Amino acid sequence: MTGRRAALVLNPAAGRAGDVAESLPARLGGELALRVHETAPGRSAAACAEAACREGASLVIAAGGDGTVSSVASALVGTDVCLGIVPLGTANSIAHTLGIPDTLEGALEVLARGEPLPIDVARANGRTMVLLSAVGLHADTVGETPQELKQRWGVLAYVGTGLKKLMSLSPFGVEIETDDQRIHCRATAVTIANMAPARTVLAQGPSVVSPEDGQLDLTIVSATTLVEAVAAGLHLLKTAMEGEPVERDNIGFLAARRFRLTTDPPQHVLIDGEEAGTTPLVVECLPRALRVMVPRREGRRAPPLAPEGEAKLEGLPDLEVEPKA
């Protein structure tokens, strides 16, 4: 990566934050002059990234979890400034999806020797979305897990809340509108993904969820019992690992550039892991709007893309599909 200036946006509370600040200058060599911006109460990662851009940084490095990465990315969308990632969070789903190692040494190697890749992002209810938006089971589980448990146990904190939600699944009516059609059905979870690792099973309806195809992937799960939910989750994980689309009747999916979701009753909305009010939810893809440093693809194939027009809706309860005039 060449350029004159780089900036490190650092969450000082994140694990190994000090190691990152100490290691980066030596790894970047003399090509980039590095300035460190630390987040603080009243000073978000996005504000730090905006300041770095004003100072002329050509590379802004987000050191933290997915929330920090997404916040920094929001300031870089539509610019020529490249996003670098040093994953220091619990899930690190953005880094994982892009093939960035979760070790400090591996992430620094990508910053030093990787290449910039233009990827899609999205706008979700006015917010920048890098990963996904969710309503229903996923959003409720994250939203109802106490913050102190998240800080103490990481992703394990969601297990107890998730099990409670699975024991009392409450289907809701959903209307999904694209540029071409309106879809009505009942669901327990709806996820709109720009990118998602295989372990994010509720986003894995299609054969591929890619941030390089200029579209968003919507997955609907309509399981109503604990047994159905477990079976659906296992099926989603299996097909994601095999690169195949789902086949179960109580799971559906489709792709579009833009989705508008309304639900009855209103549902909590989750955008890139953060609570974001309630439905309705409008998400629009912004193709190739963000440049990210990723491992070089020399000698490797380009990532697979889902077949054009791949979709499955049949089998969803109370399904109605109306073409738009």
Automatic annotation (TrEMBL):
Keywords: Kinase, Transferase
Comp. bias intervals (Basic and acidic residues): 309-325
Pfam families xrefs: DAGK_cat (PF00781), YegS_C (PF19279)
Record domain DAGKc: where: 1-128
One Gene Ontology term, aspect cellular component: cytosol
Keyword Transferase: yes
Entry's Gene Ontology molecular function annotations: ATP binding; kinase activity; methylglyoxal synthase activity
Gene3D superfamilies xref list: 2.60.200.40, Probable inorganic polyphosphate/atp-NAD kinase, domain 1
GO biological process: methylglyoxal biosynthetic process; phospholipid biosynthetic process
SUPFAM superfamilies, sorted: NAD kinase/diacylglycerol kinase-like
Region named Disordered: 300-325
Protein name: Lipid kinase
Annotated source species: Sorangium cellulosum (Polyangium cellulosum)
